[in-house]
Amino acid sequence: MFAELNELLGASPQRPETGKFTLLRDTRTDGSFLVHHFLSFYLRAGCKVCFVALLQSFSHYNIVAQKLGVSLTAAKERGQLVFLEGLKSCLDLLFGEEEEQSGQPSPLQFISESASNLKALFDFVRTSLTPAGSDSWKGPVLLVDDLSVLLSLGAAPVAVLDFIHYCRVAVCSQLKGNIVVLVHSNEDSEDEENELVVNSLCHHSDLILWVEGLATGFCKDVHGQIKIIKRVSLELMAEQDVVQIYQYKIQDKNVTFFARGLSAAVL
Fold first, then answer.
1. In whole angstroms, what is the distance from residue 54 CA to residue 110 CA?
2. How many angstroms separate the CA atoms of 168 and 175, rounded?
């Protein structure tokens, strides 16, 4: 996890908040460093994590996590991490191996069906995060990287939004846990379905971290801009949302944040 980002968010792995829905949104850049931050943050916090990884392999996430001081392999072995490797599940479904191996329907069963029903995926999440009698983990966490892939796999926008709604009820409300979801967006895109999902999620998020590439193009000392939107208006109707804007630079094992125009290279 990145200590500077924790300071900006007022977050601590010793006191993780509960019942929060966090939206990670990236435009013209790669926001995956935020996924790695929250994955390592909640594992260090002692939370039970269900990671629906649709974009990369387990080995990729594990290599990055080790740089941040966390072992995903060890977390899986001790039962703290439930990892759905979407890339492998899709291949197994296409070649008919998924159900033969487990005897259970795949969480991504909708790929091979005519209707884009995400009930199997929701059942997987709920089963993974419902605490057993012997569990001593803190609040459960659902992490999705990234939700836009479900649309690319054929799920309808309504089905994706229904899935998130039911997850919010189960994880945030009933189990007092948290949800963190990454989505790609491009305001100039003609992908209306993706933009519908992104805009709908923005309205229901407690916290939005929106990373954007620089409008001026590539810069070796400033990799992008992050907008932190705290949705105060969800709890206090008369209040306005709190918006903070910073620029950032991604390093090998860390990310540094600074006010716009105050990069070390400039100063």
1. 14
2. 10
Rounded Cα gap, residues 213 and 37, in angstroms: 19
The tokens for 89 are 């599940």
Alpha helices by DSSP H, listed for the chain, are 3-9, 32-44, 58-67, 72-77, 86-94, 98-102, 119-129, 148-152, 157-167, 192-204
Q: Which residues contact 125 (CB under 8 A, 6 or more apart)?
A: 50, 52, 107, 142, 167, 170, 171
Mean pLDDT, the chain cut into blocks of 10 residues (267 residues total): 92 92 95 96 96 95 96 95 92 68 74 82 95 84 94 92 96 96 85 92 95 85 93 74 93 90 61
Q: What are phi and psi of 246, to 5 degrees?
A: -135, 165
Nearest to 46 by CA among 88, 3, 24, 15: 15
Residues 6 or more apart whose Cβ sits within 8 Å of residue 100: none
Cβ atoms of 61 and 146 within 8 Å: the answer is no
Site of tokens 């890339």: 87
**pTM as predicted:** 0.92
Return d(Cα 22, Cα 122) in angstroms, integer.
18
What is d(CA 68, CA 112) in angstroms, rounded to the nearest whole number? Answer: 37
Alpha carbon distance, N-terminus to C-terminus of the chain? 27
Q: CA–CA separation, 4 vs 84, rounded Å?
A: 29
Residue 9 and residue 228 in contact, taking contact as beta carbons nearer than 8 Å: yes
